[in-house]
Design brief:
By secondary structure, the protein is of the alpha/beta class. The protein has helices at residues 2-7, 77-98, 120-126, 128-131, 184-196; strands spanning 10-15, 22-27, 35-41, 61-64, 70-73, 104-110, 135-138. The structure holds zinc ion (ZN).
Length: 201
């Protein structure tokens, strides 16, 4: 990936993190003005279940859909390698025609998006002045269909929660045990019900 970016005139480097490294590239021919930071990720979802693949996921191929569309099929082709390479190839095409890009472009590619991106925020903070940009462009999204482009805003992250409800360890005799003895299943249902009622969920 660094070589690909270098061939485009970008100064690119692999940057270590406690997890998978980041790829960072800056356009060396950069014009002054608007600084665009493009984000993508090189890690992908697991291939399972393999039985649902019509071809080897590790052998990229071009398939023809029933409606005649030609598509690239490979592990990660639609998330996020296709989008990532579309942007890089668009930069290559623009430079071939115009010589330099119309804005200053930096590219940041991480390798832990599918596993929570734990090292992304610390990396951004540690390299804030280098990566500071006017616009962040993320093409890790989708389109309703082939002919309907979409601008996706307000992307959400992931939240994982573990709820533990501790209750009595043995039957409680109503005549012997004082105060209310809450039923843990009822408590859990109430908690889940309250969560589902949130207007933003
Ligand atoms: Zn993605």
């Amino acid at each position: 990936m660094c070589k690909e970016l270098a061939a485009l005139g970008f100064v690119a480097s692999l940057r270590e993190t406690p997890g998978h490294p980041m790829v960072v590239g800056h356009d060396e021919d950069a014009s002054d003005g608007l600084h665009v930071l493009f984000y993508g990720h090189y890690d992908v979802q697991p291939t399972d279940p393999l039985s649902l693949w019509k071809s080897d996921p590790f052998e990229p191929s071009i398939a023809t859909e029933p409606d005649g569309r030609r598509i690239i099929v490979a592990r990660g082709a639609s998330d996020d390698k296709g989008q990532l390479l579309t942007f890089i190839e668009a930069c290559r095409a623009w430079k071939a025609v115009h010589g330099t890009l119309p804005v200053r472009v930096s590219i940041l590619i991480e390798g832990e998006e599918e596993s929570g991106g734990a090292n992304l925020m610390p990396f951004l903070k540690a390299n804030a002045s280098e990566l500071k940009a006017d616009v962040a462009l993320i093409c890790d999204t989708g389109m309703p269909d082939r002919k309907t482009p979409a601008i996706t805003t307000s992307l959400r992250g992931l939240v994982g929660e573990e709820v533990e409800i501790v209750c009595a360890t043995h039957d409680l005799h109503s005549g012997m045990f004082g105060n209310a003895a809450r039923n843990p299943i009822e408590l859990l249902c109430k908690a889940l019900g309250a969560y589902a009622m949130r207007p933003d969920v």
